[in-house]
From TrEMBL:
GO cellular component, one term: cytoplasm
Pathways involved: Carbohydrate metabolism; tricarboxylic acid cycle; isocitrate from oxaloacetate: step 1/2
Entry protein name: citrate synthase (unknown stereospecificity)
Gene Ontology biological-process entries: tricarboxylic acid cycle
InterPro entries documented for this protein: Citrate_synth-like_lrg_a-sub, Citrate_synth-like_sm_a-sub, Citrate_synthase, Citrate_synthase_AS, Citrate_synthase_bac-typ, Citrate_synthase_sf, Citrate_synthase_typ-I
Any one GO molecular-function label of the UniProt entry: citrate synthase activity
Organism placement in taxonomy: unclassified sequences, metagenomes, ecological metagenomes
SUPFAM superfamilies: Citrate synthase (SSF48256)
């Protein structure tokens, strides 16, 4: 079919929006269309059987197509299902954003009320999860280790979750996971500080209920300044998804074997734990505490430039400009500090950012503050212990992981199984132990 004025090829892709690959060993070439910003590997595999494109950390590889989140690293753009993160942070709520990520559209008022009801009535965890898992950990267990293990343990309480082909069954597990993450997280914290477990309160909103499970002591009901619960809601919105990051990729890879969603989410949680990923917010606070004063900033920056450690909370695989989330979090910090008083580490963080943004080492490498640089200052001011910071990342990110898990299944994805470039030794015969030198 020819459209007026433009020759078309490959189902409507204009000629020229393609690449040509030539195998110089044979002189054969193939033209591959560029579709949605990528070229399909199955095309070049026909020309180059057994020749793999080497991309060890997937920095230049699209592992999937997705309609959930859009990033533009150069322009600092982040959109969930087409909605700019700035608008969602200002006008939406985390539960509404979770619905948007999972269902693809903002909910109607009726849908939103039903969604909130479903989440609210699934916040409880089985008593054995608390008594035999959470309370079975060592007294100083890190809450991320407790959370990761408890999520995996939930797979044994809901064996029907293995039926990943049934959309209604998938949705039941999605609702359970979104609802129970705060309860597991708060339960891990309460155990680690020797406080009694606080059961969910179905009469308050999602984030206030989490704060209640975290901090309520003897008062019959928990109350907090609405500016704090709103700040937490905004932080949950900002952390809800971020396309094919390390932990989401883990969720998709494990889910592609058709493992149950609890096992896939536990894998994602384990990936998030790393200091290069979700563990960075905890690492930032420890870094700022270690720097301790203005006087030490220049020496610290020089140590980073000398390769002795990294400026945690800076840099990003995709964003080569200011992480749009960091801008919003920085503003939210001032709102929180109006209630809690300023976190004394803020001045060090601001001076560190100013110094780095004016230093050629960071400018040349396009290193800017990311989502983790300021978030910990808010969490600490709100009373969360540093060990809980990555847990606070995992709570909302489970909505993103689940939306990608569901999309991967709906795409009928094959099991993830990359290839390798073998660089080991050639075949050789076994040598008996007494003949070995
Ligand atoms: C998150 O992927 C996502 O979307 C993640 C996330 C999400 O929402 O899911 O956005 C959340 O994980 C944010 C990132 C949190 N991590 C940190 O803040 C840890 C510190 N940052 C880095 O270690 C690093 O920037 C990464 C891990 C975030 C990105 O690493 P890349 O893309 O693999 O970059 P790289 O390690 O190849 O670094 C390129 C250069 C190197 O220098 P040279 O070897 O070229 O001389 O930049 C340097 C690095 O040494 N560099 C840093 C640095 N980050 C990169 N130098 C000092 N401090 C840093 N933070």
């Amino acid at each position: 079919m020819q459209s007026a004025g433009r020759r078309e090829r490959h189902e409507g892709i204009p000629l020229g929006e393609s690449v040509t690959i030539t195998d110089n060993r044979t002189g054969k070439s193939i033209e591959v269309p560029i579709v949605n910003g990528g070229v399909d590997s199955s095309e070049w595999a026909k020309l180059l059987p057994g020749v793999w494109f080497y991309d060890p950390s997937f920095g230049n590889t699209a592992s999937t197509s997705s309609a959930i989140t859009y990033l533009d690293g150069e322009e600092g753009v982040l959109r969930y299902r087409g909605y700019p993160i700035e608008q969602l942070a200002e006008k939406s709520t985390y539960l509404e954003v979770a619905y948007l990520l999972i269902h693809g559209e903002l909910p109607t008022p009726v849908q939103y009320e039903e969604w909130k009801h479903q989440i609210t009535t699934h916040t409880y965890i089985h008593e054995h999860v608390r008594k035999r898992f959470l309370e079975g950990f060592h007294y100083d267990a890190h809450p991320m280790g407790m959370l990761t293990s408890s999520i995996a343990a939930l797979s044994t309480f809901y064996p029907e979750a293995k039926d990943i082909e049934d959309p209604a069954n998938r949705m039941r597990q999605i609702i359970r996971l979104i609802a129970k993450l705060p309860t597991l997280a708060a339960g891990a914290h309460r155990y680690s500080v020797g406080m009694p477990f606080v059961y969910p309160d179905n009469n308050i909103d999602f984030q206030t209920n989490f704060l209640s499970m975290m901090f309520r002591v003897a008062e019959p009901t928990f109350e907090c300044d609405p500016r704090l619960s709103r700040a937490l809601d905004i932080l949950f919105i900002l952390h809800a998804d971020h396309e094919q990051n390390c932990s989401t990729t883990a969720a998709r890879v494990v889910g592609s074997s058709q493992a149950d969603p609890y096992s896939a989410m536990a894998a994602a949680c384990a990936a998030l734990y790393g200091p290069l990923h979700g563990g960075a917010n905890e690492a930032v606070l420890r870094m700022l505490t270690e720097i301790g004063s203005y006087d030490n900033i220049d020496a610290f920056i020089e140590s980073v430039k000398a390769g002795k450690g990294r400026l945690m909370g800076f840099g990003h695989r995709v964003y080569k400009s200011y992480d749009p989330r960091a801008k919003i979090i920085k503003q939210a910090a001032y709102d929180v500090f109006e209630v809690t008083g300023k976190n004394p580490l803020l001045d060090i963080a601001l001076k560190l950012e100013e110094t780095a943004l004016n230093d050629p080492y960071f400018i040349e490498r396009k290193l800017y503050p990311n989502v983790d640089f300021y978030s910990g200052l808010i969490y600490q001011a709100m009373g969360f212990p540093v060990e809980m910071f990555t847990v606070l990342f995992a709570i909302p990110r489970v909505s993103g992981w689940l939306s990608h898990w569901q999309e991967m299944l709906e795409q009928k994805s094959r099991i993830a199984r990359p290839r390798q470039l073998y660089t080991g030794v050639d075949e050789r015969d076994y040598v008996a132990i007494n003949a070995r030198q």
